[in-house]
Amino acid sequence: MASYDVIIIGSGPGGYVCAIRCAQLGLKVACVEGRDTLGGTCLNVGCIPSKALLHASHMLHEAEHNFAAMGLVGKSPSVDWKKMMSYKEDTIGQNTKGIEFLFKKNKIDWLKGWGAIPEAGKVKVGDEVHEAKHIIIASGSEPASLPGVEVDEKTVVTSTGALELGKIPKKMVVIGAGVIGLELGSVYARLGAEVTVVEFLDAITPGMDAEVQKTFQRTLKKQGLKFIMGAAVQKTESLKTKAKVHYKLRKDDSEHVLDADVVLVATGRKPFTEGLGLDALGVKMSARGQIEVNAHWETNVPGIYAIGDVIDGPMLAHKAEDEGMAAAEQVAGKHGHVNYGVIPGVIYTHPEVANVGMTEENLKEAGHAYKVGKFSFMGNGRAKANFAGDGFVKIIADKDTDRILGAHIIGPAAGDLIHEICVAMEFGASAEDLAMTCHAHPTYSEAVREAALACGDGPIHM
Ligand code: FAD
Ligand code: NAI
């Protein structure tokens, strides 16, 4: 039996970041991981592999659609799927090995196996029981199931199966127009699949700024994705190498069937707590299966904490990381903090979509007076040169104080541009503060400045 200051269960972005910060703060740390490699969902079957495939397929799209217009003519690339898969695997390997290196560097013990908590202060891994003053659960999430839909990870797949298909399907049906459905749907559409997205609601990416939703859907349609909106999936039928998707249109209850080579089920994820023994410990859970924590990430059982996808809030790697650092500070006797009002969300399609803070819809509902500054990438010289003029930056500021309340971007490098606004919001900046900051020319970030100018006397280039 070994004794630790902290044992963390799960080595995803929440767990591994927490472990590193705990070690940096002088604590003796172990991290339990049941997978063969560190890094959790994000590095193994989530953020990293999906971004590798998005990158590779985007390069192909650029070659097919934009190269000739720039005078780049001649042999166009074709897809070697096996090679693309091994590029993805290499990318995963480099990242998971990187965490292993960081664990060694920070003297963090990796307890290999599935952990359970027999009682507060103890973690069981295999036959061994280890002691810990603090236990932090970072066990993450898994795909949510859908009634009538049986996943076999071959023809009816979750994101995990979709990241390792044996070949590129001719026809793919995606259930759910959320982040996973649109990112992975984009990958296969660019690689030549006919992709149809079936969505229960009338708009894609629920919760997002309505104007962005419309522009985003229009752009994806131009890229060849088809959408069936307001459609409730009833069941899927798996026929070895093909599948059928049965759905009902909500407006008239009419029944329809779609054929597919592969069906991707992307209707959300749920917390993963299996085998931890939380029931017996009396750890309080929400109706949605999330572990309940207080403002310091501690559960109702003293000494047991939880962070990341397994608790409430957006299921995002950077949210889990921030909670990992903050919980580490907390158990080290310091004061950890996460500003939940300034957590950006990014969809890594092309163009990218990014948001932070309030939407117009949120503010209307709250009766909060606001103003909007908007600027199209069509007015941005760099974007025009790069065939990236589709999309806009929209900044929302308080009507009276001019304080920035939120921002919504669809366009080139949106996922990077959003952070300028995050920093501004952390400092309580006004739109004018952004507008008065010199921005280098020619950069995409000039569009952010122009949107900030549009909150005041108006943009220059529109
Ligand atoms: P996880 O990353 O899920 O890690 C939990 C780990 O705990 C797992 O490795 C699991 O094996 C281990 N574990 C669980 N129980 C036990 C146990 N009892 N004993 C031992 N080990 C255990 N987010 C983004 O911010 N950006 C993205 O681009 C992005 N892309 C995504 C793409 C896909 C396809 C998917 C599925 C998700 C994506 N996400 C993205 C979401 C992101 O992956 C999660 O929000 C993030 O991984 C959550 O981190 P976590 O540490 O809470 O849990
Ligand atoms: P999601 O919650 O983003 O989207 C699910 C979609 O499915 C919604 O549009 C919903 O209305 C729809 N839906 C639900 N039931 C349905 C039904 N029966 N029929 C048709 N449509 C239905 O969930 P998703 O895409 O599975 O992603 C899970 C999590 O992973 C998200 O919370 C996201 O934060 C995270 N993620 C983040 C990424 C990023 O940051 N770029 C990338 C991929 C995942």
Automatic annotation (TrEMBL):
Residues 4-324 form the FAD/NAD(P)-binding domain. GO terms for biological process: 2-oxoglutarate metabolic process. The active site is at residue 441. Disulfide bonds join 42-47. Pfam families: Pyr_redox_2, Pyr_redox_dim. InterPro entries: Class-I_Pyr_Nuc-Dis_Oxidored, FAD/NAD-bd_sf, FAD/NAD-binding_dom, FAD/NAD-linked_Rdtase_dimer_sf, Lipoamide_DH, Pyr_nuc-diS_OxRdtase, Pyr_nucl-diS_OxRdtase_dimer, Pyr_OxRdtase_I_AS. FAD binds at residues 51, 115, 309, 315-318. Residues 343-452 form the Pyridine nucleotide-disulphide oxidoreductase dimerisation domain. Its EC number is 1.8.1.4. The keyword Signal does not apply. Binds 1 FAD per subunit. Its cofactor is FAD. One of its GO terms (cellular component) is cytoplasm. GO terms for molecular function: dihydrolipoyl dehydrogenase (NADH) activity; flavin adenine dinucleotide binding. It comes from the Bacteria. NAD(+) binds at residues 176-183, 199, 268. It catalyses: N(6)-[(R)-dihydrolipoyl]-L-lysyl-[protein] + NAD(+) = N(6)-[(R)-lipoyl]-L-lysyl-[protein] + NADH + H(+). Keywords: Disulfide bond, FAD, Flavoprotein, NAD, Nucleotide-binding, Oxidoreductase, Redox-active center. It is an enzyme of class 1 (oxidoreductase). The active site is a redox-active disulfide bond. Belongs to the class-I pyridine nucleotide-disulfide oxidoreductase family. This is Dihydrolipoyl dehydrogenase. It comes from Roseobacter denitrificans (strain ATCC 33942 / OCh 114) (Erythrobacter sp. (strain OCh 114)).
